[in-house]
Amino acid sequence: MRFVFPTLLMAAAASAQLPAPNQMGVAMGHLHLNTTDPDASRKFWVDFMGAQIVKLATVEVYKFPDALVMVRKAAVSGGSEGSAVNHLGFKVKNLDSYLEKCEKLGFKIVRRMPETRQAFVMTPDEAKVELTEDAAMSVPIAHHHIHFFNTAVLETQAWYAKLFGAKPGKRGRFDAADLPGVNLSFSPSDTKTEPTKGRSIDHIGFEIQGLEQFVKKMEEQGIKFDVPYRKVPQLGIAIAFFTDPWGAYVELTEGLNKL
Fold first, then answer.
1. Structural domain that includes position 95
2. What is the number of domains present in the chain?
3. pTM of the predicted structure, to 2 decimals
4. How confident is the model over 148-162, as pLDDT tens digits?
């Protein structure tokens, strides 16, 4: 599967610092984006967002507390708006300093919400990123949430709660579900959203303890995998890919937390 290999290389590069899994063996893993301009994307994630770079040969991984960001050069069929994953969320210690840096580096600020200390910015390939200030943080920035948009909010929440053991609840006004290292937030869309695969946010990734058995249980429940479970011995990890019922492309991995 040639299209999987760049993801695997980038995954293997990271010293992950991923969170411990929940009782079902699930935790946040990585976010995988497509870009037509790797240099501009690197500038966004490293110079602006402040990611730590980890390398495997010439491949770069952008590391944040609780999540890895992986970016590959590819055609981009569209931005994240209008897709099943509308945006990614990060918490920052000082929002004003981030917005000042964003303007200085020439990246787009699409919305400011000073009353809630939040803002939305865009990557060069139109992946939307939400920044929320948390002055009590001990680090400048950390991964926080993935925000899904579709026409079946409560069904999506229940689906992720059942399959992954995510704890359902609310994040402010949003229906949500929590996994170690990430809040999954769900908002209604008036129109059907497009699948994420091929767009600026291509897929999201969860790290699974006992992945082979986990995949078998998902298959027993009727989940069909785009890329079936397989080990990658040269990298010391295992992987599988599926698409959720609303179009979010999802990679499951095992082994990133040992790197």
1. 5-203+212-258
2. 1
3. 0.91
4. 999 999 999 999 999
